[in-house]
Amino acid sequence: MSWAARRRFLILLIVGSCVVAFLALLSIATFYQTPSCTDSTQNQDEEGIDCGGSCPYLCTAQKQPPTVLFTKALTNSAGRTDIIASVENKNASAAAKNVPYRIMLYGANQVLLQEVTGTLDLLPGAATPVYVPGVVSGKQAVVGAFLSIASSSPQWFLMATDSRIVPRVSNTQQSGTLATPRIDATLSNPSVTDLRAVPVIVIVRGVRGEVIAASKTIVQTIPAQGEAIATFTWNSPFASAPASIEVVPIIPLP
Fold first, then answer.
1. Cα–Cα dist 20/134, whole Å
2. Which domains does the chain have, with CATH numbers?
3. pTM for the complete prediction?
């Protein structure tokens, strides 16, 4: 091979190498995806797909699924149905926000009458009440209600300490008449800032522990280091004599 031919070959080799390097860089820039917690791939230091390790969410397989403690349908005086339920999170240091749930209402012969959906927050190691008022169920009587949560629905995250400001409940009293019962409870705000629009749920149980009534109200303002009264009223008597009353302020997770 002559010197001129070798020179042309060397130039072509250099140009070809540059083209190959450019195409390689272009392919990497186009197709390579930086590992992240939203790429549907187990990479980085993840313990599962987009969970564990440095990702904000914990792996669902490593956590206990939420447990539905009870679901109760309560027919009100207007012929509509109120639903009260309780969902327990047995994970002591894991929480989940905006977890979707589904409530199915059944009539006689397991006929599906209505379906209700919503979301709730699951607190570490605690039970959370769910109250849905005035569900229209048609002319048929509701004989059963079931709340369900898909085990894959909660996006668990670590919550070792609770930073929420939760009002303290005291002085729970029943009054009113047999036909129109009333319950009042005092809510105390321990913080130096006002709490506004606080949802509060009450669950009333009979002597055998069965739920006989439930309701929900909104306390518009609980002043800083002050108190406010949560009041619940009914336009029909309780199914039996109340034996215990539980009042639960609902403070969303941060």
1. 69
2. 63-158 (2.60.40.3230), 168-249 (2.60.40.10)
3. 0.83
